[in-house]
Each structure stands twice: as C-alpha cells, then as structure tokens.
Amino acid sequence: MNASSTAELIQLLGSHARRAAFEMARAPALQKNAALKRLAGLLRSSIATLQVENAKDLERATAAGLSAPMVDRLKLTPKVIETCALGCEQLAAMADIIGEISGMRQMESGIRVGQMRVPIGVFGMIYESRPNVTIEAASLSIKSGNACILRGGSEAIESNRALAALVRQALAENGLPEDGVQLVPTTDREAVGQLITMPQFVDVIIPRGGKGLIERISRDAKVPVIKHLDGNCHVYVDDPCDIEMAVRVADNAKTNKYSPCNAAEGLLVSRGVAKEFLPKIAAIYAAKGVEMRCDLESKQLIAGVFTAQGATDSIALLKDATSQDWFEEYLAPIISIKIVDGLDAAITHINHYSSHHTDAILTTNHIHAQRFLREVDSASVMVNASTRFADGFEFGLGAEIGISTDKFHARGPVGVEGLTSLKYVVLGEGQLRA
Asked: How far is 256 from 113, CA to CA, in rounded Å?
C-alpha cells in the first residue's frame, strides 16, 4: 500500500474497503463462520506473541503517565484473549441474519412486499485503549457481511497491529478479502479527520472512547455516527428488597471493574431500607478503598455507624457530594450515594442525571420492577442484576461494537443486527400500477 500522505492513505483504505464490502456481503454463512472459528484458534495459539506486543504498549503507556484505569484498559491478559476467542465462536454459532426477509404481505395489487436484512456496507471504528475492541469489531464485521476500517488509539498500536494481522490471516485462509478488515497503520491524528469525512467510502462511524473523542466525532463527522458519550450508570435499592442480594449486586456493579462504561457510578437507596443496607455496602466499599460521595443524609448515617465501630480510616472515604457528582462517570473507585424517598424519586433522579446507558433496580416488588423497566429512559434497564452485564457478549450477541445511547437505528449493545439495515423487496408477477 503506497500513499504519500495521511489523506491519501485513508482514501486508499476507503477504496479497498468499498471493494471488499461487495465480497463480504455476498459471502455465504459457512465461509464467514469458518473465518470466525479460525480467528478464535489463532487467538488462542498466539497468546504469548500477543502479550509480547501488548507489553510494549503497557510500558510506553506507563512511562507516558497514563492513568491506572487507562493502563488497565490496555491489558491483553489470557482471560481477555480467551473472551475474544469465545466471542468469535459464539458469533459463528449464531444464525446468519443476512438475507432474511420479514414482514412479507400481499397487497391488493397482487404484489408482495417485505423487508430484507442487509449489511450496512463499510463502517469506520475509532476507539481508544482497549485492544480487544479490534477483535470485537472485526468479528462482528465478518459475521454481518460488512467491511470495516479500524483506527485504534496510539497507546495500543502494537497490540492492535498484532491482532489485526491474525484477523487478516483468518480471512485469507477462508477465501475472504483481507481488506474486509483494515487497521489504520498510522497514529497520525489527521487520519481520524479523514476517516469521518468520506461518505463515498464509509457508511457509518462508530466512536468508542472518552467523552472528548465522541464529542469531536459527532461534531465533525460527515457520515452517520452510532455513539454514546458516557456511562453514568445507577443502581437503585428499592423498598422492599432482598438486602443481602442488594449488597452483593451493588458491590459487583461498582467494584467488579472500575474502568468499563457499564460500572455503576451512582447508588440510590430508598429511605425505608437505608439504615439496614447502607452500613453493609459502605463497609465493603471502604474495605476496597472506594471513595463515597454522599448526600447529607447518607453521609450522616454511614459516618455514625463507622464512628460507633471505631473505623476512622473508613470515615475518611466519606465525602460530600456536589451537584456535579450526580452527573459524573468516574471510571475509578468512586461512587455517589443518595437516599431517596422511593421509586418515583429514583426514576426522576435517573432520568435527569444519567447518561441513559444502563440502570438497575434491586427489588422484590414486581410492580416496582415493571414500572422501572417502562419508565427509566436508558438503553439497558435491569432488574436484580449488576449493571456490568450490559455487554454484547453477556447479552448473547457474540461481541459488541459498542453501546449506543442513541434512539435511532441501534440502541444498547450493538451486535450483528445493529450493523445491518433493511431494504424493501417486492415480488410480483407482472403487475402494473393502475
């Protein structure tokens, strides 16, 4: 691939992707599934090699002073690689929806009208930190019959190159165009500006990263964007609830991993269960070093219990919440805590402050659960489950390209179906319009 400038390079990638998209769209399911299974095998057999390349990125990121959550997102552990491989196999086992015709109906004229599911064509993926996104995007692109152009962050360039090479190997070995998945080989920031402004080659852009990146893409793109700006996710502990279950779920939602966008950032507790619930979850958070930014009522309640226990170190983790805290996506061992009057107040708070990503209710009241599901305006709404389940793999999508908080086309974890479109098909027998 020869190009004298970044602009020419991206144009070249775009033209190659557009040609490859035609081949990917018409590839039979068996061929796509074989490539996915081969990719899973290559990932498992290349763990040592991938970790060598990943170590270069981690060393450079640490030397550059990247924050701990950012460095954590960069890691390609054997567990992360195995999850990627399982995602490929899960996708391969799924039915192929490309070419499906739905809603076929007979009209008075005699024609039959329905809709066929087809690939979008070419999508551009712009993402930061997590190199496993390279495999998630590539595998979904293969299954959905699309071509894609991937532009990962400069901090993960070595890891992404190694992963992309495995993808291209799996495609080539199974008779699919290598250019069905292309990684932008340069870390030049101009590449992003070029990629998002060439609708002749790219049909949709999917940014995945920090709020600043996504705001820039949304502002400057000349092609449609599937996006979410941040993940301010909430857990609401209802009255009534199973207290022990609520403690376990609220712990997992926050501390299972701090850096993902589906980690809980806000904890709302109904006043009727606060005295029983809050001391238990606060003790767990304190033991794990989680800073708690509380409203006055919750802070007094928790501090009173800690004082009685002589837990002075734990008291130091209690802070006063500001109005901005209710909006925050911390991506760190910090959580905002507020006592609310009940279900109505919790729903009002969530719909006002949340980023409409993922919110959960912990309750034993069926009517409360149903109201929460209907009335909370978020992409994923959960009952008695950790927000950490808001993930394409956990939802059975095989993998996810990202999580969309948009309301058109795709919402929530975006899997194969989110990378497709519908076109009308008409079947006739020579009918003429009167």
From this structure: 49
